[in-house]
């Protein structure tokens, strides 16, 4: 069978040594099976990322349980490939969980999935894979890789827009992209489940995991409170009037409406939203929804999917994992980006990622450091 789209440049034999990251879900299992069917020498690996993993998942919440590890092993057995479990729990704690907590403590809103791709799956895992002689790491992400005759590669959106995961892969640099395989990028989720069933994979109907994998119960505020403790402060309106109190500014996110526990309603009777979180004086500022309108932003630590971009240009930008693209003008520098949106977007917070696209091609990603709003806070 011919190779699937997006395989790295192959040696003369056309056969690659591929390390397939197997989470225990249907996507990574089918991705591994497709890599085998494409003629590659595939080894499956499950990443043990939890120091004290639970035995079972609760529905679709969380991942990295012992059940997930066993599901991955059974899938590897059906596919007919060697299988190992690699313990990366300490690295995951340092690079993802500790970073997550520190970002919230600093009043920012991080994306742990993006950080995991950057630091774990395509750094720690890929580095180890290359050191052991593997040519590529294969995952079940929904994204496409386009190869050019000169050997360069581009990351593009998946064919299935509803499942596209290029946003959380925007942190990959050219070298990481050169060693990546995404066999599912041209396929829809329904087709993947049907294929898994035909292949006899027991995970064919297993629910997708969602939310934050290391907060299995979905209680992010409780998770942060356990690690950061109680830190009472004031909830203010835009003119500085005290409206209520909170137990920790880390428990709020920009754009939040529910759970504000305000002492009195707004004079106009309209809902109020979190507009600003200040760790310096431990205050949370709320106001009308119009105060969320962001028309420009500055982002730092850019990472380019291929040749580094520079100068001013027109792009589209995705500002949240499941957000829509918006047209922007961006000035790209070595250390930061300045992005101006054609139309304002709401709920954009420091700590989130802005990912730039040229058509379906991912140009790069950067971390939002500050925003400019039409209505001052």
From TrEMBL:
<keyword id="KW-0694">RNA-binding</keyword>
<dbReference type="InterPro" id="IPR023382">
    <property type="entry name" value="MnmA-like_central_sf"/>
</dbReference>
<dbReference type="InterPro" id="IPR004506">
    <property type="entry name" value="MnmA-like"/>
</dbReference>
<comment type="similarity">
    <text>Belongs to the MnmA/TRMU family.</text>
</comment>
<dbReference type="Pfam" id="PF20258">
    <property type="entry name" value="tRNA_Me_trans_C"/>
</dbReference>
<keyword id="KW-0819">tRNA processing</keyword>
<feature type="disulfide bond" description="Alternate">
    <location>
        <begin position="116"/>
        <end position="213"/>
    </location>
</feature>
<feature type="binding site">
    <location>
        <begin position="21"/>
        <end position="28"/>
    </location>
    <ligand>
        <name>ATP</name>
    </ligand>
</feature>
<dbReference type="GO" id="GO:0002143">
    <property type="term" value="P:tRNA wobble position uridine thiolation"/>
</dbReference>
<dbReference type="InterPro" id="IPR014729">
    <property type="entry name" value="Rossmann-like_a/b/a_fold"/>
</dbReference>
<keyword id="KW-0963">Cytoplasm</keyword>
<dbReference type="InterPro" id="IPR046885">
    <property type="entry name" value="MnmA-like_C"/>
</dbReference>
<dbReference type="Pfam" id="PF03054">
    <property type="entry name" value="tRNA_Me_trans"/>
</dbReference>
<feature type="domain" description="tRNA-specific 2-thiouridylase MnmA-like C-terminal">
    <location>
        <begin position="295"/>
        <end position="368"/>
    </location>
</feature>
<keyword id="KW-0808">Transferase</keyword>
<feature type="active site" description="Nucleophile">
    <location>
        <position position="116"/>
    </location>
</feature>
<keyword id="KW-0820">tRNA-binding</keyword>
<dbReference type="GO" id="GO:0000049">
    <property type="term" value="F:tRNA binding"/>
</dbReference>
<feature type="site" description="Interaction with tRNA">
    <location>
        <position position="141"/>
    </location>
</feature>
<feature type="active site" description="Cysteine persulfide intermediate">
    <location>
        <position position="213"/>
    </location>
</feature>
<dbReference type="InterPro" id="IPR046884">
    <property type="entry name" value="MnmA-like_central"/>
</dbReference>
<feature type="binding site">
    <location>
        <position position="47"/>
    </location>
    <ligand>
        <name>ATP</name>
    </ligand>
</feature>
<dbReference type="GO" id="GO:0005524">
    <property type="term" value="F:ATP binding"/>
</dbReference>
<dbReference type="GO" id="GO:0103016">
    <property type="term" value="F:tRNA-uridine 2-sulfurtransferase activity"/>
</dbReference>
<keyword id="KW-1015">Disulfide bond</keyword>
<protein>
    <recommendedName>
        <fullName>tRNA-specific 2-thiouridylase MnmA</fullName>
        <ecNumber>2.8.1.13</ecNumber>
    </recommendedName>
</protein>
<dbReference type="GO" id="GO:0005737">
    <property type="term" value="C:cytoplasm"/>
</dbReference>
<feature type="binding site">
    <location>
        <position position="140"/>
    </location>
    <ligand>
        <name>ATP</name>
    </ligand>
</feature>
<feature type="domain" description="tRNA-specific 2-thiouridylase MnmA-like central">
    <location>
        <begin position="222"/>
        <end position="287"/>
    </location>
</feature>
<keyword id="KW-0067">ATP-binding</keyword>
<dbReference type="Pfam" id="PF20259">
    <property type="entry name" value="tRNA_Me_trans_M"/>
</dbReference>
<feature type="region of interest" description="Interaction with tRNA">
    <location>
        <begin position="163"/>
        <end position="165"/>
    </location>
</feature>
<feature type="site" description="Interaction with tRNA">
    <location>
        <position position="352"/>
    </location>
</feature>
<comment type="function">
    <text>Catalyzes the 2-thiolation of uridine at the wobble position (U34) of tRNA, leading to the formation of s(2)U34.</text>
</comment>
<keyword id="KW-0547">Nucleotide-binding</keyword>
């Amino acid at each position: 069978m011919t190779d699937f789209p997006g395989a790295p440049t192959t040696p003369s034999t056309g056969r690659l040594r591929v390390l397939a990251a197997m989470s225990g879900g249907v996507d990574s299992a089918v991705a591994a099976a497709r890599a085998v069917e494409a003629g590659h020498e595939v080894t499956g690996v499950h990443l043990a990322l939890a120091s004290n993993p639970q035995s079972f998942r609760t529905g679709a919440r969380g991942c990295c349980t012992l059940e997930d590890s066993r599901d991955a092993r059974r899938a590897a057995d059906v596919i007919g490939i060697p299988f190992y479990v690699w313990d990366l729990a300490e690295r995951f704690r340092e690079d993802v969980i500790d970073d997550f907590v520190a970002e919230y403590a600093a009043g920012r809103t991080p994306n742990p999935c993006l950080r995991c791709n950057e630091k774990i799956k395509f750094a720690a895992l890929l580095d180890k894979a290359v050191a052991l002689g593997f040519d590529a790491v294969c995952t079940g992400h929904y994204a496409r890789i386009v190869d050019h005759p000169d050997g360069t590669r581009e990351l593009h959106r998946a064919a299935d827009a509803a499942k596209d995961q290029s946003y959380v892969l925007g942190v990959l640099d050219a070298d990481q992209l050169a060693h990546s395989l995404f066999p599912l990028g041209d396929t829809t989720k329904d087709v993947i489940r049907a294929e898994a069933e035909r292949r006899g994979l027991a995970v064919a109907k297993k629910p997708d995991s969602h939310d934050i994998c290391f907060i299995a119960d979905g209680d992010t505020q409780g998770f942060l409170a356990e690690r950061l403790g109680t830190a009472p402060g004031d909830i203010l309106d835009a003119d500085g009037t005290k409206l209520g109190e909170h137990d920790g500014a880390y428990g709020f996110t920009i754009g939040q409406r529910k759970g504000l526990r305000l002492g009195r309603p707004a004079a106009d009777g309209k809902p109020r939203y979190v507009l600003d979180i200040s760790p310096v004086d431990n205050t949370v500022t709320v106001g009308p929804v119009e105060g969320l309108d962001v028309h420009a932003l500055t982002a730092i630590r850019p990472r380019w999917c291929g040749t580094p971009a520079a100068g001013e240009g027109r792009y589209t930008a995705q500002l949240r994992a499941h957000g829509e693209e918006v047209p922007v003008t961006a000035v790209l520098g070595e250390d930061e980006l300045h992005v101006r949106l054609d139309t304002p977007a709401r709920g954009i917070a420091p700590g989130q990622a802005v990912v730039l696209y040229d058509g379906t091609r991912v140009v790069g990603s950067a971390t939002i450091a500050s925003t400019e709003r039409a209505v001052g806070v």
